[in-house]
Specification:
By secondary structure, this protein is an alpha/beta fold. 41% of the residues lie in helices and 15% in strands. The chain has helices at 38-46, 61-72, 85-92, 95-104, 116-132, 150-156, 170-183, 191-195, and strands at residues 2-7, 16-22, 27-34, 50-53, 145-147, 187-188. A six-stranded mixed beta sheet has the order 5-4-1-2-3-6, with helices on one face. The chain is globular, with a radius of gyration of 19 Å. The two termini are 28 Å apart.
């Protein structure tokens, strides 16, 4: 079995992709590519059994409805509802985000209100390209394409899940790779891949 993981950014630069082959006794990182285009992701996902995208695959339903109503000038909000933080939270966070927060204590970026929206816009175009290529795009995770959240996975595995992102984190990246390899001795990184922790 082959899985593809994509750390999607708003542009090709800073987008990374890795392929992992799952064998009977180990998992082997076969490819690691940096500065990846949408076309490259579509092509690579053709041979993968599952493709995980580190990006929200959609927006909160209530937010989408609000934007559509706002566009047509027909927003109606129950008295006192639009002023409350709870109402804004419902607009900003998807059910997926709320489940991640409940299970891990991690508050995901809001696709409706944070910088991750730029990446989600790219992702919407990418999902359209994947679907046009004949790939099963079910945003609920039932198809070939799934949404992944690495920080939540690291948290569930008992590994460092905060403070490892960004440039200048080489020591944290190296420590995280070491901890991951210790926790999953069946994961095989070739030296070139293990060195890409900066």
């Amino acid at each position: 079995m082959l899985t593809l993981g994509v750390d999607l950014a708003a542009a090709d630069k800073r987008t990374a992709m890795a392929a992992i082959e799952w064998l009977s006794d180990r998992a082997v990182v076969r490819d690691l590519i940096l500065d990846v285009s949408d076309a490259c992701i579509v092509k690579a996902s053709q041979r993968a059994d599952k493709t995980g995208l580190d990006c929200p695959l959609g927006w909160p339903g209530p937010f989408v409805a609000l934007m559509a109503a706002h566009q047509s000038g027909h927003v109606t909000i129950a008295e006192g509802e639009g002023e409350g933080a709870q109402w804004r939270r419902r607009m900003a966070y998807r059910l997926t985000d709320e489940v991640v927060r409940e299970k891990t204590g991690i508050v995901p970026l809001s696709v409706a209100a944070d910088r991750i929206a730029h990446t989600a816009l790219r992702c919407a175009g990418l999902l359209a390209m994947l679907a046009a290529d004949g790939q099963d795009v079910d945003r609920c995770g039932g198809g070939k394409i799934v949404e992944v959240y690495p920080a939540a996975a690291l948290n569930c595995w008992g590994l460092t899940h905060r403070g490892y992102k960004g440039r200048g984190q080489q020591v944290q990246h190296a420590d995280l790779v070491t901890a991951l390899c210790a926790a999953a001795p069946w994961l095989e990184l070739v030296p070139r891949h293990a060195a890409l922790n900066g």
